[in-house]
Amino acid sequence: MKEVLEHLTAVAGVSGREDEIRRVVGELVRPYADEVGVDALGNLIAHKFGLGPRLMLVAHLDEIGLIVTEVDERGFLRFMPVGSGIPAWRLVGARVAFSNGVPGVVGQEKVEEVKDLRPARLFIDIGATSAEEARALTGGTGAVASFAPSFSVCCRRVVAKALDDRAGCALLVRLLTELREVPNDLVVVFSVQEEVGQRGARTAAFGLHPAVAVAIDVSPAGDTPEAERRTVALGKGPAVKVMDTGLIAHPAVRELLLEIAGREGIPHQREVLERGATDAAVIQVTLEGIPSGAVSLPCRYVHSAAEMIDLDDLEGAYRLLRALALTPLAGRF
Ligand code: CO
Ligand code: ZN
To answer: One of 18, 63, 194, 195 is an active-site residue; which one?
Structure first.
């Protein structure tokens, strides 16, 4: 899993610019799916035919990033974050890279207090000395930068950019490569534009009309010193979503996931998240309503250049998703 995770997190794919990561994931899954397609918004959909009800598993391809709003006369690039829930102070000092590879660092204006730090007071410094140079190197207004790739492993924990949600993508890639016969009709969706409001999952669910859907995404862990909230913790296993800002998990989906985790002896936790949502939030209200739930990977420093997850949680999530995919759902949904 480590190798595919390193591979997937190294690719840039800010919301709306998922071409490269879609190509990379598409190549990985194509040999293992009965059918692979891309819809109008850019969702990558891998289908494994089965006779049972349609099960949709979804992880998002996109990652948060920065989009240039203007370039000043000295070559500093002002930007707006792409994606919500990005604290400005997490951006300060981050290394970034434009899609053409041009590197930069996020600098800040003088501010008296951390709370005064807003994205409007930050800028990307690529080292250019004039507006012309900065524009020529990046494209200027509308150019998009992601965090620069980084990847390290220590103590069973991975630190990288974009683990939100390449960790979910890596799980679904592995699932496709290892599954043979499936009892349900399985559609695996690698969705676009999750970070700007779950837009890809909305149209994908409409087009696919699944009987049941499960999103796989990270969830902010509350297990660091004096953390703001008590939520999920790293190393205690994948979390079965109970509720977040956008979803009250469908009881039948939640109980199914808990039942499977219990049956398979997979250490797991329950998640109630005060702030944040996943693709499941929009899938549940698509069409006449789709029973939806989510499996979360506890993650520290979500939406920063250095997110952290636990490899045992990842393994547990894999076992849970695999058992789910192999559970006949006929009569349940
Ligand atoms: Co996110
Ligand atoms: Zn996410």
So the answer is: 194
